[in-house]
């Protein structure tokens, strides 16, 4: 893909993150406004009824603090994904979100797991590892910015805080790494430098050994062609 077209601001860079964030806030508003409890639509590991949470868990939040803590990094990372990795952005977001929920369903504790933090960890991991793997200078720079802003999140893939779904975080983190590897050759990649071959390079074989020229080649190089026109200049002083 042409890299000049890859790094281009489009409507999706802003609309997709804003629509996603609006949707999770709207769902929470509906839950509070009408007295619903959507926690039962979260992931309940290793149960058939809890498998529906694989599809809905990222849109459900327990309280306003939980929702707000996910909103800012979700917006920033989604914009980064849509701008720097738009060739695979929708696949990462859709398939990565489902796979994150599925991994949580497999490894999670027997409790409802809800929240968009799994998506946040998915995006964080994918953006960071993709830049490291592809080694394109812009993507590496984005990886460094990501680790600077949200590097402290890595601690929460471990069970260090009560009531937090570290399993969902770990699932998103591993899924992001997996997708970074899968899509390492998609979208923008570092261009390999191609050296221009010269006559000097023809003097050596592929192993770097010198190739002696045959006497005929030396004669042909040193002897002017019969079609060559030679000019001789005689200065005026030499004629007198």
Automatic annotation (TrEMBL):
Q: Which residues form the Peptidase S54 rhomboid domain?
A: 54-185
Q: Which domain of life is it from?
A: Bacteria
Membrane topology classification: Multi-pass membrane protein
Q: Which Pfam families match?
A: Rhomboid
* One GO MF term: serine-type endopeptidase activity
User: What is any one GO biological process for this UniProt entry?
Assistant: proteolysis
Q: What is this protein called?
A: Membrane associated rhomboid family serine protease
């Amino acid at each position: 893909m042409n890299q000049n077209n890859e790094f281009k601001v489009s409507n999706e860079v802003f609309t997709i993150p804003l629509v996603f964030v609006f949707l999770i806030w709207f769902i929470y508003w509906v839950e509070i406004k009408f007295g619903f409890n959507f926690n039962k639509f979260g992931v309940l590991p290793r149960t058939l009824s809890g498998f529906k949470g694989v599809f809905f868990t990222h849109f459900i939040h327990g309280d306003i603090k939980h929702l707000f803590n996910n909103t800012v990094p979700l917006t920033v990372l989604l914009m980064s994904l849509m701008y720097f990795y738009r060739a695979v952005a929708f696949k990462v977001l859709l398939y990565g979100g489902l796979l994150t929920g599925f991994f949580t369903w497999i490894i999670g504790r027997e409790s409802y797991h809800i929240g968009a933090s799994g998506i946040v960890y998915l995006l964080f991991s994918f953006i960071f590892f993709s830049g490291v793997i592809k080694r394109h200078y812009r993507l590496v720079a984005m990886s460094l910015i990501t680790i600077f802003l949200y590097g402290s999140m890595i601690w929460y893939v471990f069970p260090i805080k009560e009531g937090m779904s570290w399993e969902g975080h770990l699932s998103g983190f591993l899924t992001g790494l997996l997708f970074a590897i899968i899509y390492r050759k998609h979208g923008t990649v570092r261009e390999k430098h191609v050296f221009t071959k010269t006559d000097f390079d023809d003097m050596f074989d592929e192993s770097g050994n010198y190739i002696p020229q045959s006497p005929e080649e030396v004669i042909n190089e040193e002897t002017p062609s019969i079609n060559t026109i030679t000019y001789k200049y005689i200065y005026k002083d030499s004629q007198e």
